[in-house]
């Protein structure tokens, strides 16, 4: 529970908008869908009148490799716990679809079915994160507490997590000769497609352009672009540097919301 009437769970466990229920203290309560983030497999539910007990999050600075942790879930209503050790605490990463995960956590607990949606807590009951489905072969990924809090705030405000969108298809390209000299860098993003009516189209981008920098951030690969198009870029007009026909040009692009 995130508040006395809010529950954050795995999105695939709340794949409909009607007939949702949440069990608390042996009683099933009807729930309403607040919003989903399929990119991180999260869904936020409101459970009116359930008087739930909000969780306490462990501060990021207190996470320690080697500490005992519990994975707590309730698949099909049956309480299930698994004891393990926190084995990985590393910097965050960007998913292939542009969702930011603020820290990389992992624990050596059993990955049997029913783990997705489980809370990962320390022995004092403080929550480090939550298991969701994602990554290669749909393996279980732990989303840290700070990611859960950020996504919850976005879902409460907008019903979805807004991520930036330019309406352009690109691939990395290595610059050679005069193009490299003009750009002042070794790589860029070659424009392969421009969506009609999208932000890039409105900014005048065309096939064959090479994106060099967005808002001062060099564009060496697609992950650079996705990282700069996080939720805080939505609605902003950002300077864009590109190479067209061997010549440098500067444009301004208004970042849209990814459909």
List its traits:
259 residues; mainly beta; Thrombin, subunit H; Pdz3 Domain; 3 domains; 6-stranded antiparallel sheet; 19 strands
Describe this protein's structure.
The chain is built from four helices and 19 strands. It is mainly beta and 259 residues long. The protein folds into three domains: 41 residues, no CATH class; 99 residues, Trypsin-like serine proteases (Thrombin, subunit H); 94 residues, PDZ domain (Pdz3 Domain, Roll), CATH 2.30.42. The strands form five sheets. It has a six-stranded antiparallel beta sheet. Strands 13, 14, 15, 16, 17 and 18 form a six-stranded antiparallel beta sheet that branches. A three-stranded antiparallel beta sheet has the order 1-5-4, with helices on one face. The longest helix has 14 residues. The model has no long low-confidence stretch (mean pLDDT 89).
């Amino acid at each position: 529970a995130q508040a006395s009437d809010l529950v954050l769970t795995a999105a695939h466990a709340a794949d409909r908008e009607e007939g949702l229920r949440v069990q608390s203290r042996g009683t099933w309560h009807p729930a309403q869908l607040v919003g989903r983030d399929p990119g991180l497999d999260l869904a936020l539910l409101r459970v009116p009148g359930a008087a739930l007990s909000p969780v306490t999050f462990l501060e990021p600075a207190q996470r320690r490799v080697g500490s005992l942790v519990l994975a707590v879930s309730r698949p099909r209503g049956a309480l299930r716990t698994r004891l393990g050790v926190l084995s990985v605490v590393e910097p965050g990463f960007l998913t292939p679809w542009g969702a930011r995960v603020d820290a990389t956590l992992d624990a050596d607990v059993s990955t049997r079915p029913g783990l997705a949606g489980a809370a990962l807590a320390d022995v004092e009951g403080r929550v480090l994160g939550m298991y969701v489905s994602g990554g290669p072969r749909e393996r279980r990924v732990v989303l840290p507490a700070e990611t859960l809090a950020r996504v919850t705030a976005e879902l409460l405000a907008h019903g979805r997590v807004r991520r930036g969108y330019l309406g352009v298809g690109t691939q990395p390209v290595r610059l050679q000769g005069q193009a490299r000299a003009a750009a002042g860098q070794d790589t860029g993003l070659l424009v392969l497609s421009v969506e009609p009516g999208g932000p890039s189209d409105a900014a005048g981008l065309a096939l064959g352009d090479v994106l060099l920098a967005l808002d001062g951030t060099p564009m060496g690969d697609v992950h650079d672009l996705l990282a700069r198009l996080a939720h805080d870029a939505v609605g902003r007009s950002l300077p864009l540097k590109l190479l067209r026909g061997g010549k440098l040009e500067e444009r301004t692009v208004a970042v849209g919301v990814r459909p």
